[in-house]
């Protein structure tokens, strides 16, 4: 998957967790948890959703790297098989 | 109809999940029940074979109404000697609607109890429902409906729809979800008002350093699939549950002027719903669960609360409630006790703070735990012991990964 496709996947997974959010307005470098009011369970769903869709494993140590939309897309791109 | 919460007096069968002749076990989902707050998966308290379903889908009946009968205790016995267990049906005026009529009414937002049936025995025919949907609408009502985005089919009115009818609908929450949120908010408001009126609250706080919890989780969650990972919140819940069994006065209810201690921890977890409203699903016998089991129970009930599909066993009266603010929350929450309970433990955001130990200051993960407790059931000394007991469990989380005391 290229970065655009990965971005679409990330937004899709976020849309399932926060269906009321307007993801078009999302600041690509803003903290997702803060912007979308995600708690730890939401974030767990986010990480497992990404794993299900892309096969990329995101260990807890990498959580800071996937905390923003841009960071998340870059992480997935770098670690995709 | 089971009581799924102290303030429920009637429920609607949304869907039956079993049929006559089905073998069911304790905990199997029998039906989906709409309580005005949420759709609940009602679980069986019995083992046996379903005899007869006495209440149809779409029917609203009071709490206590017999919904279905069981045949004998197990399959072998049932075939040998089918003894219907309960046949007593307190019959509120029951009207049976055909599935066709019910679906049509649902689609067109027609309350079937207001429809005059022209069929045999007053049965409602399709044409009766359709007649309700072809109502006259005043031009002003039509204009207002368009302006407010109101679906005219959903406007309750006995005669022609007037502007006032539309305004009434536009003014209040029109959808089922919004109705529920409003109901939920009103019920929470009434309960909280009662709490502050009746319960003499006192408040304590204790900062707990979580280095050992975080280190233990780091190790435990490494190389583990996301769904198997444990979050710090689950460890804190496990610690609270165990401490609640050790120090008396917080795990129970104030009933008829006296404190009654619960024999087990029915841990209520406040779940904030996206878009507003609170639900408090219950983790049963929480003190007996390992950290991993606590995590699974917490994850399951949060997911089900948010999707509006809790199980009946999650809606029993909690014996103590925990309110966690989560990663994005404030540092501390000083709660309002849910009566008739006598305590609420607040869990603030887990964050890095300056922490002094052995004469040195370092940055460490810290959470502020608070206790709001009923002064009729306990005092500040007991409360301090309770918070200290939670802290002690958090210092050694690995001990909670084995079975708790039961």
Short description:
Chain A is mainly alpha-helical. Chain A has 4 helices and no strands. Chain A has helices at 3-17, 32-35, 40-54, 69-79.
What would you say this structure looks like, in words?
- The complex is a heterodimer of chains A (81) and B (406).
- Chain A is mainly alpha-helical.
- Chain A has helices spanning 3-17, 32-35, 40-54, 69-79.
- Chain A is globular.
- Chain A starts with a helix and ends with a helix.
- The model of chain A has no long low-confidence stretch (mean pLDDT 90).
- Chain B is 31% helix and 23% strand.
- Chain B has ten helices and 19 strands.
- Chain B has helices at 75-80, 99-108, 126-133, 139-148, 163-171, 176-198, 211-221, 232-246, 291-306, 380-395, and strands at 10-16, 23-24, 29-34, 39-43, 48-53, 60-62, 68-70, 201-209, 252-255, 258-261, 267-269, 271-272, 278-279, 282-283, 309-311, 320-324, 343-347, 351-357, 360-374.
- In chain B, helix 2 packs parallel to helix 3.
- The radius of gyration of chain B is 26 Å and the shape is elongated.
